[in-house]
Design a protein that fits this description.
heterodimer; A: alpha/beta; Rossmann fold; eleven-stranded mixed β-sheet; 38% helix; 20% strand; globular; B: 488 residues; mainly alpha; Amino acid/polyamine transporter I; disordered C terminus
C-alpha cells in the first residue's frame, strides 16, 4: 500500500507533502516521493543536453532532500528520481511500477492562495490517470501527524456518483473520519429570468424541486452506507447554492482536515480518472484538497 | 367542497421571505433599461416591415408609434401590479396572487400562446436571415422546399426547426454559463439597427412617401396590430420588481426609457426602409432589412453584416423566450394547473428536461409548419389579451384593496389603464378574424382543461398534497415589509 507523490523539480513542495502525509496517516500507507527528470535525447554528436541533464538531476535531488527533511522520518517514504520524456508520462510509468493507491499532486504555483490551480501535468493526469488523483491547494498546510477527519463526497445525481459516494464511504471508514454528501448548484443571474419575463427568481422553483430530489436520493444512499461494514459516521447531506461555483462550494462550510472527493465524468467509458466539466469547476474552486477518482475505481 | 366561484377567485398566498434568503436589490436603472431594450428589440423589427408595410403603406411609421404607446401604457400597468405583490415570477404569478385562480388561468393561456408562438415566429425570422447570410457568403441558398412553411410552398422550415433544437439542447444542459451577457447583446442589437439607418439613409428617396396612407386609418391600425409583436418583451422589465434598486422610481423610468429608445430606433428603421425602397416591394420580402441594404449599396457586404448581427441577436431572443416558456409552465405545474411532468427536474443537469423537450417540440412544429405572418398575429393577440387582463386587474385591485401599499402607481389613474384597455381592444379588432377565432378557441380549450384538471389539482384545493387548509381562500395581499422600504 503506497501513495505516489509527484514533486516538481523546480520548487519546494511543502503543500503536496502536507497532504501526502495526511493521507498516508489516514490510510496507513507509505509514500513514494518522485521527481521526474527529462530522459536523454537520442544520441547525437553534439551531446548538448549533458549539462542540462546534470542540472536537472541536481535540482531533483535537492527537491527530494528538502522533501525528506520536511517529512523528517515521521512518515515512511522512499524517494526516487525517474527519467521520462515528460512529467506526465513519468508519473504514469511510476504508477505502472509501484501500483500506488493514488497519486498526490500540488497546485501550479500561479494560482490564488488557498484554491486549487491545475498545471499542465495535473490537468493531464486528471484526464488520464488509472488511479485516483489528489490535488493540494496552493499553500496547503497541515501537521505531519494530522489525519483526514472528514470526506465530503460530491453527488451529481448519476449512478456513477452513487458508486463514488459508496467508495468514499469505505475510505472514510478506513481513515476513521466521517462522511458527508454534497451537491452544488449555481443560481443563474437574475437578468436571464427578467429578460424572459419570468422574473429574476424564475430558477428558484426549479432549484427547490431539484433540492428535494437530491435530498431524497442522498438519504437513500445514506441508508445503503449504514449497511456497510466497516461504516463511517455519516453527516446529513448538504447542498451548496451560490451565485458562482466558488460561492456554492464555500456555502457548505469547511474545516481543517476536510477532503473533497469528486468523481469522473459519466460520459467517459474507461475506468480512468476523467474530470467532467462540472467536476473541473468544482476542483478549480475548491478551498480544500480534492481527490478525483475514476468512474469505477477499485477502491483501496 | 369548494364551490366553483371560490375556486375561480381563490388567491395564492404570498410566501414570506425567509431570513436566510434575503432579497438583494442589485439592478440599477441603466441595466434595467438595457434589459427592456434587449428583451424588446430582436423579436420583430428584423422581419415585421414586410408584413406591416403592405397593410399600412408609408404610414407604418404611425403604426409603430401607436403600437409603442399602447405597449408602454400596459407595461406601466404591469409595473404597478408587479410592485403590489412581492412575488417573483411572471404575470401568471402576479395574477394568481392578486386576482385569483381563474384570471391566472386566462393569463397563463395567453402567456403560453405568446411565448410558444413568438419563439416560433422569431425562429422563422432567424431562418430567413441565416439563408440570406449563407447566400451572401457562399453564393448558395437552401432550397425553398426546406426553408418555407407548407402554406408558402415549402415542405418544412428546416433552419427554424434546427434553431429550436439547438436552443433546447442548450436549455437542457443548463445555459447559465453560456448565455452571452446582456450588455453585449444590447450593443449588437442597437449597433445593427443604427448601421441599417446609417447605410440605408444614403438611398433616401422622398417620392416613396408620396402616397403616405393608401389604406387610411384602418390600414394604420391593422399595421399596428402586426407590429405590436415587435414590442413584446417590454413588459419583461416589470418582472424585475424584486431585484431592482428603488423600484418605485426605476421601474417606470426604465420602462419609459427603454420604450423611447425602442420607438426611436423602430421609427428610424421604418423611415429609412421606406425611403430606400418603394413601399410596394416590401410584400413577401424575406430578410427584409438585409435586402434593402443590398439594393441601396449595390453590394452585398452591408446586408451580410446586418444579417450576421440579426442571426446572433435573434438566436439569443429565441433562447430566452423558450427559457421563459419552460419556467412559466414549471410554475404552473407546481401549482397543479398543468400536469406534474412539467415540474420534473433532472438530477444531473438540474434542468426540467421533459418540460423543455415538450415545449421545444411544440414550438418546432409551429416554426416548421406555419407562416410567419400568422405566427406574428397570434403572438400579438396573446400578448394583447394578457395586457388587457393585467390592465383590468389593476383597476379591480385598486377598487378592492385601495389601501394596499404599492411599490409603484401608474400616473394619471384611471386614465392610463383605461387607455391601455381601449388601445388593446382597438388593436385586437384590427387583426384577422381567423386569428381572433383561433385565439378564442385556445383560451376556451385551456379553461375547459382547467375545469376538468387544474380546478381539482390546484395547490389551493384543501386536502391536496401542497394545499394548506389553514390558508384562507382569499388571503389579503401582504404589505411589503419594513425591510423592503428601508432598502429602497
Amino acid at each position: 500500500m503506497t501513495l505516489l507523490v509527484g514533486v516538481d523539480t523546480g520548487r519546494r513542495s511543502t503543500a503536496v507533502l502536507a497532504l501526502a502525509a495526511q493521507l498516508a496517516n489516514s490510510l496507513d500507507t507509505d509514500l513514494v516521493v518522485a521527481a521526474v527528470v527529462a530522459s536523454p535525447w537520442p544520441p547525437s554528436r553534439a551531446s548538448v543536453d549533458h549539462e542540462w541533464r546534470a542540472h536537472d538531476r541536481a535540482a531533483a535531488e535537492q527537491v527530494l532532500d528538502h522533501a525528506a527533511s520536511v517529512l523528517g522520518g515521521e512518515v515512511s517514504a522512499r524517494f526516487v528520481v525517474h527519467e521520462a520524456a515528460s512529467s506526465r508520462r513519468g508519473l504514469l510509468e511510476l504508477v505502472g511500477e509501484e501500483s500506488p493507491d493514488a497519486i498526490v499532486l500540488g497546485s501550479s504555483s500561479r494560482g490564488e492562495h488557498g484554491r486549487i490551480s491545475l498545471g499542465a501535468v495535473s490537468e493531464a493526469l486528471l484526464h488520464a490517470s488509472p488511479v485516483p488523483v489528489a490535488v493540494a491547494p496552493v499553500g496547503y498546510r497541515a501537521a505531519l501527524d494530522s489525519r483526514i477527519v472528514r470526506l465530503t463526497a460530491g453527488y451529481g445525481g448519476t449512478e456513477a456518483a452513487e458508486d463514488l459516494v459508496l467508495g468514499a464511504a469505505s475510505i472514510a471508514a478506513r481513515a476513521g473520519g466521517s462522511l458527508r454528501i454534497v451537491s452544488f448548484a449555481v443560481r443563474p443571474e437574475a437578468e436571464t429570468g427578467i429578460l424572459a419575463g419570468a422574473g429574476g427568481r424564475a430558477e428558484d422553483p426549479v432549484l427547490v424541486e431539484w433540492v428535494e430530489l437530491i435530498r431524497s436520493h442522498a438519504s437513500a444512499i445514506i441508508d445503503e452506507i449504514e449497511e456497510l461494514d466497516p461504516r463511517p459516521r455519516v453527516e446529513e447531506a448538504v447542498i451548496g447554492i451560490g451565485e458562482s461555483w466558488a460561492a456554492a462550494i464555500d456555502d457548505i462550510g469547511w474545516t481543517d482536515g476536510d477532503l473533497l472527493v469528486v468523481g469522473s465524468s459519466g460520459l467517459n467509458p474507461l475506468a480512468r480518472v476523467f474530470l467532467g466539466s462540472h467536476g473541473a469547476k468544482i476542483v478549480r474552486n475548491a478551498g480544500v484538497p480534492v481527490l478525483v477518482v475514476p468512474r469505477s475505481a477499485a477502491w483501496p | 367542497m369548494t364551490s366553483i366561484a371560490q375556486q375561480l377567485f381563490r388567491r395564492k398566498p404570498i410566501p414570506r421571505e425567509s431570513a436566510d434568503s434575503p432579497l438583494r436589490r442589485t439592478i440599477g436603472l441603466f441595466p434595467l433599461m438595457a434589459i427592456g431594450i434587449s428583451a424588446t428589440i430582436g423579436t420583430g423589427i428584423f422581419f415585421i416591415m414586410s408584413q406591416a408595410v403592405p397593410l399600412a403603406g408609408p404610414a407604418v411609421v404611425w403604426s409603430f408609434a401607436i403600437a409603442g404607446i399602447v405597449a408602454g401604457l400596459t407595461a406601466l400597468c404591469y409595473a404597478e401590479l408587479a410592485g403590489a405583490v412581492p412575488v417573483s415570477g411572471s404575470t401568471y404569478s402576479y395574477a394568481f396572487a392578486t386576482l385569483g385562480e381563474g384570471t391566472a388561468m386566462i393569463v397563463g393561456a395567453c402567456l403560453l400562446l405568446e411565448y410558444a408562438v413568438s419563439a416560433a415566429a422569431v425562429a422563422v425570422g432567424w431562418s430567413q436571415y441565416v439563408n440570406e447570410l449563407i447566400g451572401n457568403l457562399f453564393g448558395w441558398r437552401l432550397p425553398a422546399a426546406l426553408s418555407n412553411a407548407p402554406e408558402e410552398g415549402g415542405i418544412v422550415n428546416l433552419p427554424a426547426v434546427i434553431l429550436i433544437a439547438l436552443c433546447a439542447v442548450l436549455l437542457v444542459r443548463g445555459t447559465k454559463e453560456s448565455v452571452i451577457t446582456n450588455a453585449i447583446m444590447v450593443c449588437i442589437k442597437i449597433g445593427v439597427l443604427l448601421f441599417f439607418i446609417a447605410v440605408g439613409v444614403t438611398g433616401w428617396n422622398s417620392d416613396h412617401f408620396a402616397d403616405f396612407a393608401p389604406y387610411g386609418i384602418s390600414g394604420i391600425a391593422a399595421g399596428a396590430g402586426v407590429i405590436f409583436f415587435s414590442f413584446v418583451g417590454l413588459d419583461a422589465v416589470s418582472t424585475a420588481g424584486e431585484e431592482a434598486k428603488n423600484p418605485k422610481r426605476n421601474l417606470p423610468l426604465a420602462i419609459i426609457g427603454a420604450l423611447l429608445v425602442v420607438i426611436a430606433l423602430y421609427i428610424g428603421v421604418a423611415l429609412v426602409g421606406i425611403g430606400a425602397q418603394d413601399p410596394k416591394r416590401f410584400e413577401n420580402q424575406e430578410a427584409g432589412l438585409a435586402e434593402i441594404l443590398t439594393h441601396v449599396i449595390g453590394s452585398s457586404w452591408p446586408g451580410t453584416v446586418l444579417a450576421a448581427g440579426a442571426v446572433i441577436s435573434i438566436f439569443s431572443v429565441t433562447l430566452v423566450t423558450l427559457y421563459g416558456q419552460t419556467r412559466i409552465l414549471f410554475a404552473m405545474a407546481r401549482d397543479g394547473m398543468v400536469p406534474k411532468v412539467f415540474a420534473k427536474v433532472n438530477e444531473r443537469t438540474r434542468t426540467p428536461i421533459q418540460n423543455t423537450v415538450i415545449v421545444s417540440a411544440v414550438v418546432a412544429v409551429l416554426a416548421g409548419a406555419i407562416p410567419i405572418n400568422f405566427l406574428a398575429e397570434m403572438t400579438s393577440i396573446g400578448t394583447l389579451a394578457a395586457f388587457l387582463v393585467v390592465s383590468v386587474g389593476l383597476i379591480i385591485l385598486r377598487v378592492r384593496e385601495p389601501h394596499l401599499e404599492r411599490g409603484f402607481k401608474v400616473p394619471l389613474y384611471p386614465i392610463t389603464p383605461i387607455l391601455s384597455i381601449l388601445g388593446c381592444i382597438w388593436i385586437i379588432t384590427q387583426l384577422r378574424p381567423i386569428t381572433i377565432a383561433v385565439f378564442a378557441i385556445w383560451v376556451v380549450v385551456f379553461l375547459v382543461f382547467y375545469f376538468f384538471y387544474g380546478r381539482r389539482r390546484s395547490v389551493l384545493e384543501p386536502g391536496n398534497d401542497l394545499g394548506d387548509p389553514d390558508v384562507p381562500l382569499t388571503a389579503v395581499v401582504r404589505q411589503p415589509g419594513a425591510r423592503d422600504r428601508s432598502e429602497s
